[in-house]
Write the structure tokens for this entry.
Amino acid sequence: MMENGETRRSMHKIPMREQDPALRRSNFREVPFGYSDGEAKDEAARCLQCRKPLCIEGCPVNVQIPQFIGLVAKGEFAAAARTIKETNALPAVCGRVCPQEEQCELQCVLGKKGSPVAIGNLERFVADYERDNGLVVTPQVKPRNGKRVAIAGSGPAGLTCAGELAGQGFDVTIFEALHEAGGVLVYGIPEFRLPKAIVRAEVGYLERLGVKIEKNFVVGRTATIDELMEEGYDAVFVGSGAGLPSFLGVKGENGIGVYSANEYLTRSNLMRAFADDATTPIMRGKRVITVGGGNVAMDAARTALRLGAEPSTVVYRRSEAEMPARRAEIHHAREEGVEFRLLCTPTEILADDTGRVTGISCIRMELGAPDASGRRRPVPVAGSEFTIDGDVVVVAVGNSPNPLIPNTAPDIATSKRGGILADEKTGRTSKRRVYAGGDIVTGAATVILAMGAGKVAARSIIEDLQ
């Protein structure tokens, strides 16, 4: 006990229990098991309840973090979930995939001498508790105000914008190009990181708020933005994401067995190509090479393991210190047996006489001066060429904004990279009553930043239409 009678706080967060790596590398079940009631209360008790909580400032959607954690410490788990939902409509998602270590948890004062409060783990816990115990309450929404808003895309930005507007009485319709709502949450993130049942539950919550979702509707092709406005929508929010994959620009990229990470993960995640009864094919390579160092690369390499690869290898041109993937994702990949070939980059994708991939040619790299990203620029080492054998190559080196809507709405200003230009503080574009946010504006980024952009745009829509 401490002198003031308080229980001594642990300087380190309580880790979540997980599937054994030797077992999970062959199944698609979620890796962490989550907290028990007692573990959640003990972790919440570590919170200092700061008078000036910097953690809130680190959250792009301004969740009242000390308030919800205080409720967890008291065992009031459902109330804690409702507190989060006052500002975040997707807590079960954010608790799993958001980079809390770079945002809210980075600001926690406990992190100066130990580890910060596990805000993300607690958010996940209370959202799961509320759902699993049938305690989800649909809040009262304001009466319909006669204003209609169309939202292009059902990813994090679109879902968040829709939830905010529905709560304020707007008639909201989301138009989704695919056959299932969720955007990158369903096609981009594997089941072992984000179970699709959880995404469906979060989407269902928004539908109970009155949000309508039209699937298999491609804004820009089924109907343009102008056509939607002619049909009576008072405003349009564009949250169509960054769906255009980047490639390496090397010889052999058209070989049989070369995938963009978008296609590879969509086949597995959305189309469930890993299942025995799947109708969508995917190449189950025996030696799979994934090129890239972000979360998408980790997702692809870990998926390859579960599809039977031995080995599954990540090739990245910088060192591990520069990898943009979350530390937890790199750690899980290593635990499961993913091999890392760092400080090297492909120069050619090799194939046999039939065009089938047989491996890649690489050259070793060394780090020079920092580039525009702040990371040290990789420089080729002369005479260091070598090869890696493989029968599938997954290219996970980034994505660009989806070009369809900008191409069919020429009066909306775009950036040099093809993204829509939108005011960061308002979400307004150059076209009146058209707003945008998320990856279509920033390029590929995080779920929580896209959600923040959806909230910003919703506030502007409310202001402009009311």
The radius of gyration is 23 Å. Residues 135 and 288 are 44 Å apart (CA to CA). The domain at 148-243+399-465 is CATH 3.50.50.60 (FAD/NAD(P)-binding domain).
